[in-house]
């Protein structure tokens, strides 16, 4: 079954690569002169290295592209999707093959995220963005505190799991949870940190979060990216540079993650979850200020 999952993911990757490669070849003489290939490659390496650690790549990529004036704002959404698709698929391939996860749990959670993004988008899109950010921010901050309490020995019995799969009620919770996280992705809420928190709270090994969260995103991204390519709504040179740099960053970071002891990996997850919760709460506060000013 793992081979089936990887085979489907491989087909998605191939389909995207053909469309992306064909567009680059067709427009090789029209690559953006204001964009530095070297800078884009460096950005790709940095953001995808940290993406593999669970930080997420869209926000830092946006910040760096703007800081170095590499991409016009109107092309940033397309560039983010197109440039990160192959690195994220590579992350999924490497983690699924190197981290052991029970296949039923893996397939169910991957499918739930994809279905959530497709079906749940209509529901989530009707919710106020500020409300979503506040709820997720508070929930992640609470999870980070509980993880910190467990790691520091303040409480016992929480997050001690080493399970590589779920069954019964916990599996149902995992499926529903990832369905919701898939839907939240369409509202701009990253899946990585919430998925880490979900896996931890359900008693699974911290390493199990990586193939699940990377796989979830890998199955979602190719379709959106192909649309951006066909609509010519992305920066070609930046996307190529970020992709190349990203592949290198992923290969180095995956080795780091898979070789870390679980105790250190848990501390890494605490940092990622805390960072994400703070960014969500700051965004919610900023959103509220904008509403008041208007």
From TrEMBL:
Lineage, opening ranks: Bacteria, Bacillati, Bacillota, Clostridia, Eubacteriales
Family according to the record: Belongs to the 4-toluene sulfonate uptake permease (TSUP) (TC 2.A.102) family.
GO CC annotations on file: plasma membrane
Compartments it resides in: Cell membrane; Membrane
Protein name (database record): Probable membrane transporter protein
Ranges annotated as spanning the membrane: 45-68, 75-97, 103-124, 131-148, 180-202, 208-226, 238-258, 264-285
Membrane disposition: Multi-pass membrane protein
Superkingdom classification of source: Bacteria
Keywords: Cell membrane, Membrane, Transmembrane, Transmembrane helix
Sections of the chain in a coiled coil: none
């Amino acid at each position: 079954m793992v081979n089936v999952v990887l085979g489907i993911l491989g087909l998605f990757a191939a389909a995207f690569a053909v469309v992306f490669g064909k567009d680059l070849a067709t427009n090789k003489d029209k690559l953006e002169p204001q964009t530095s290939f070297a800078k884009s490659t460096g950005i790709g390496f940095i953001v995808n290295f940290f993406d593999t650690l669970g930080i997420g790549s869209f926000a830092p990529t946006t910040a760096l592209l703007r800081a170095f004036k590499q991409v016009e704002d109107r092309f940033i959404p397309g560039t983010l999707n197109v440039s990160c698709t192959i690195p994220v698929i590579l992350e999924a391939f490497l983690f699924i093959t190197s981290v052991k996860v029970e296949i039923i749990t893996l397939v169910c959670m991957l499918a739930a995220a994809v279905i959530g993004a497709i079906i749940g988008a209509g529901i989530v899109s009707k919710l106020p963005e500020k409300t979503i950010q506040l709820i997720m921010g508070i929930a992640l901050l609470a999870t980070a505190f509980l993880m910190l309490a467990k790691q520091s020995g303040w409480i016992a019995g929480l997050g001690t799991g080493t399970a590589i799969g779920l069954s019964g009620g916990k599996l149902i919770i995992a499926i529903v949870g990832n369905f919701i996280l898939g839907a939240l992705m369409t509202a701009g809420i990253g899946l990585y940190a919430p998925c880490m928190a979900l896996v931890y709270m359900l008693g699974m090994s911290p390493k199990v979060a990586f193939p699940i969260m990377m796989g979830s995103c890998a199955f979602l991204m190719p379709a959106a990216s192909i649309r951006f390519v066909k609509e010519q709504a992305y920066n070609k040179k930046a996307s190529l540079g970020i992709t190349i740099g990203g592949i290198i960053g992923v290969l180095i970071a995956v080795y780091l993650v898979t070789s870390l002891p679980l105790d250190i990996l848990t501390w890494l997850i605490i940092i990622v979850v805390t960072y994400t919760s703070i960014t969500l709460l700051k965004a919610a506060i900023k959103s509220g200020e904008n509403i008041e000013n208007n």
